[in-house]
Write a structure and sequence with these properties.
About 40% of the residues lie in helices and about 20% in strands. With about 240 residues, the chain is of the alpha+beta class. The strands form two sheets. Strands 1, 2, 3, 4, 5 and 6 form a six-stranded antiparallel sheet that branches. The chain has a two-stranded antiparallel sheet with strand order 7-8. It is elongated.
Length: about 240
């Protein structure tokens, strides 16, 4: 088609006008060649200049790493490093919450387990039922507050370790039955590799003697017979 146009243009021009017609024909052919090249390039692949520059905010990972510039590679590396940091932070926080939940709720060393075990003992004791009222109506709660609607009341407790390595746990909380209310005090201890044992578990009701559910100090020790030999005392 371009060749025909050249012949037509040549036939329509005289010998004297040939020099004037040729520059226009050349510009036309050059324009057609550029359009054909652009069409072929578009059908072949998308030029790099047609896509947006990759930044930390808009990188979605679709562009191949080899096609990125130095600045775009730095942006993608920054984004991936930030995402990895967020994931690791989430894992650490999840692990911390799980550990805290185990230590405070499910572990045998937790204050919640000690409290629930003591409340079960209080509710099942016949002397407590007589002093406070019906067992199934006895409720236990922490320190009294001015807000009557407050459900989460703090429970006073203390944990320490003595010079022998024995752990001690002390707690007191309030109980209320259908007729009276009182205060429960408990002291448990645990040696290395041992389970928790009660030093004492007692209920104090105003106007009544203290009720001991557990009292190690009041347990009589086993007496050993002894005899003297060579100036020394020996026990059987």
């Amino acid at each position: 088609m371009d060749a025909r146009l050249v012949l037509t243009a040549g036939q329509g021009c005289s010998v004297l006008q040939a020099r004037r017609c040729l520059p226009g024909v050349r510009r036309y052919l050059t324009h057609k060649s550029l359009r054909r090249y652009a069409t072929q390039d578009t059908l072949g692949r998308i030029p790099k200049a047609s896509r947006k520059q990759i930044t930390v905010a808009n990188d979605d990972g679709r562009v191949n790493w080899k096609e990125l510039s130095v600045t775009e590679k730095a942006a993608r590396t920054t984004q991936q490093t930030f995402n990895l940091g967020v994931i690791l932070t989430g894992l650490v926080m999840t692990g911390g919450c799980a550990y805290f939940l185990y230590k405070e709720v499910f572990s045998t060393d937790s204050k919640t387990v000690q409290f629930n075990r003591a409340v079960d003992r209080i509710r099942s004791d016949s002397r407590v039922k007589e002093a406070l009222g019906s067992g199934h109506k006895i409720r236990a709660f922490g320190e009294p507050t001015w807000n009557r609607w407050a459900r989460a009341r703090p429970i006073a407790s203390n944990t320490y370790k003595d010079t022998n390595g024995t752990e001690h746990f002390m707690m007191h909380f309030n109980v209320e039955g259908s007729s009276r209310r009182g205060v429960v005090n408990l002291h448990t201890f645990k040696g290395p590799g041992a389970d928790w044992q009660y030093q004492y578990l007692a209920l104090d009701v105003k106007g009544q003697p203290r009720i001991y559910l557990e009292n190690t100090d009041a347990t009589p020790e086993k007496k050993h017979s002894s005899f003297n030999f060579l100036g020394m005392q020996w026990r059987k």
